[in-house]
Specification:
The chain has 254 residues and is mainly alpha-helical. Among the domains are: 87 residues; 62 residues, Serine Threonine Protein Phosphatase 5, Tetratricopeptide repeat. Helix content is 80%, strand content 0%. It is built from 13 helices and no strands. Helix 2 packs antiparallel against helix 3, helix 2 runs parallel beside helix 4 and helix 8 runs antiparallel to helix 9. The longest helix has 25 residues.
């Protein structure tokens, strides 16, 4: 018993949670009726669970998730302990779910900060399949959608219609997922479509103005920035081809 206790404490201190469990699990399987062993085993498992809870409390979600995983893997054996343990399998699953959601949200925020907005939204997709009705997951997703929309609104206000168009197009593409998360989404499809139309119109006009002023390279650049978020725009494709042909003819004469 003393050897098991010492080994378990040492493993727990080293962060080797499976070994901390095995220190009791192995002798318990050999002799489940050994006096005091089940109770000591249960106490050790309880300490490991508290370590997971404390880690989650200080937002160390990586460590907490790792501990919950270990406990879940071993949870079938805990029901054989005298007096049981102070937590259920459901508690472990809920703790792991909360950690995974927090980690995905942090990943999405990092992607968003790096300008990878599509990756930011896509970060949530795997968890939606596992937790389709989780309100916490939906709330985090809706918040990041609103933050991305705010970026689009700012870009539009600043006259950066290429960036704004990209953002509005991205949100429209992901609108079905947004609708699934909440009956009344924080923005509507009509609002996004209107924003996208404004960006398309502004870039079309700017490109046309540059073209009429003889600034073919600038016109091409503006129209190509439109095609990034509206790749099927036949009118703009034709305009780009025409401008490129004319520009090539001018360059040949030089």
């Amino acid at each position: 018993m003393k050897t098991a206790a010492a080994e378990s404490r040492q493993a727990l201190a080293a962060g080797d949670f499976q070994r901390a469990i095995d220190a009791y699990k192995v002798p318990f399987k050999r002799d489940p009726h050994r006096k005091g062993l089940a109770a000591a085993y249960a106490r050790a498992v309880g300490e490991i669970y508290l370590a997971a809870e404390h880690a989650r409390g200080r937002q160390d979600f990586v460590l907490a998730a790792r501990i919950y995983h270990v406990l879940l893997d071993n949870s079938p054996d805990f029901k054989n302990l005298a007096g049981g343990v102070s937590f259920s399998k459901g508690d472990l699953e809920a703790g792991l779910r909360d950690c995974r959601i927090a980690l995905v949200d942090a990943q999405a925020r990092q992607e968003m900060k790096a300008g990878n907005l599509a990756k930011a939204l896509g970060s949530y997709t795997p968890l939606f399949k596992e937790y389709p009705r989780d309100s916490g997951l939906s709330s985090r997703y809706l918040r990041i959608v609103q933050d991305i929309e705010a970026l689009g609104d700012k870009a539009r206000a600043d006259g950066n219609f290429a960036q704004a168009g990209l953002i509005f197009a991205l949100l429209l593409e992901n609108f079905p997922a947004l609708e699934e998360r909440q009956a009344a989404p924080p923005l509507t499809r009509a609002e996004l479509a209107a924003g996208l139309a404004l960006c398309r119109e502004s870039l079309t006009k700017t490109g046309l103005s540059e073209y009429r002023n003889g600034n073919l390279a600038k016109a091409i650049a503006v129209w190509e920035s439109l095609l990034v978020f509206d790749p099927d725009n036949a009118e703009i494709k034709k305009a780009v081809e025409t401008a490129k042909t004319q520009l090539n003819e001018i360059l040949k004469k030089k």
